[in-house]
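#struct-help
A.M.: can someone run this one for me? Single chain, 307 residues.
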Amino acid sequence: MATLKELSHQEEKFVGGHRACPGCGATIIARQVLLAAQQPVVVGCATGCLEVATTIFPYSAWNVPFIHNAFENVAATMSGVETAYRALKKKGKINKDIRFIAFGGDGGTYDIGLQSLSGMIERRHRVLYVCYNNEAYMNTGIQRSSATPRGAHTTTSPAGTVIPGKIQLRKNLTEIIIAHEPAYAAQATIGYWNDLITKVRKALDADGPSFLNIYSPCRLGWAYAPEMTVKVTKIAVETCIWPLYEYQDGKYRITVKPKEKKPITEFLKLQGRFGHLFKWRDDLPIKEFQAEVDRIWERLLKRSQAD
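D.P.: on it. Structure tokens below:
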């Protein structure tokens, strides 16, 4: 298990000076993920908030080899890079032990990058794919994605008198990836930094493709004060809206279990994107959201106990 003293002595692979919003979850994720890496790394990043805010020409916050590609194909790009590395290593032209990390938001991962990601895992490329999940297309105007939760207000699922925000369930991408039988898969968040660091190291050490779905609050799209970012992630875990668990060798394990499972209203009330739900004509949207969270949590408990 990593310690703060150990991490403080490491060279920063992701540095300050970027243009991300105050309180941005994605940049905290990038820093923590790269601090966890104990080998040289090559990073690929899909177009999105993280790429746009950190690579404003002629500057870059990435203190590692970095590749920017299109919105939908970071998994394919890093598949090619990892394959080239293996070929060069086999020929004796490279002798370093290098790891490969792909970053993508939920838009470029849950939606338009899913085919690329699925192919990367099916072909068994040794790449860690990190989804910084801020639950909407934040970079292009806060449009809903398939990661957007039920009831959230976005510019393409606006809350009004007819609908209370997004009406569909969010996609459970972590379970879709687990169905691919990756070497390692997990959910994490920045509020539990040691859990995240541990999972990154497991993922990078895994002999095959790995996937981390990391909860990434967006203070702009979620509408909360910038200093609340870490608190929001912790409440997401305590309400089981974002369970922290891992899948490896065919087994599930819950890595952080709340001492007391709080109602989802404790999470919803912190953010403007859910404010309309407390003024809605009835409490049905909140009840449906709570039922979804309870169902997924109970299923996860059974799967982890079965193992």
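A.M.: thanks! The mean pLDDT is 96.
D.P.: also worth noting: The chain has one domain: 4-306.
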